[in-house]
Design brief:
With 100 residues, the chain is mainly beta. The protein has a domain of 46 residues. Helix content is 0%, strand content 23%. It contains no helices and six strands. Strands 1-4-5-6 form a four-stranded antiparallel β-sheet, with no helix packed on it. Strands 2-3 form a two-stranded antiparallel sheet.
Length: 100
């Protein structure tokens, strides 16, 4: 098993795997994860290479706020075509008008 360990006093949330393509073999892709940095009281996003996790992040972005522990997402390989104006299970994104 290959591991990447964050620095001390950094808490890594569970990554969500995003395949490199819809035909990529298992493990070929990018597991992004959020990392809480206690000294900054803020988080950052790291992108790892699924084939070389032990090398550490290949990209990242610092945030100016903390992402709560347990925040999760999901990768969707194909756009949802049954309801393009609303997130799955969410309200419509169309603005309501006075005539509605």
């Amino acid at each position: 098993m290959r591991l990447w360990r964050a620095r001390p006093r950094h808490a890594v949330c569970a990554p969500v795997f995003a395949p490199r393509s819809v035909t990529a073999p298992q493990g070929v892709g990018y597991p992004p994860a959020t990392v809480f940095v206690e000294g900054r009281n803020a988080s950052h996003l790291v992108i790892l290479d699924g084939e070389r996790i032990e090398d550490g992040p290949i990209a990242g972005a610092f945030l100016d706020h903390r992402v709560p522990a347990g925040f999760h997402g999901a990768f969707v390989a194909q756009p949802q075509t049954n309801a393009p104006d609303r997130p799955i299970g969410g309200p419509s994104l169309k603005a309501a008008t006075a005539s509605d």
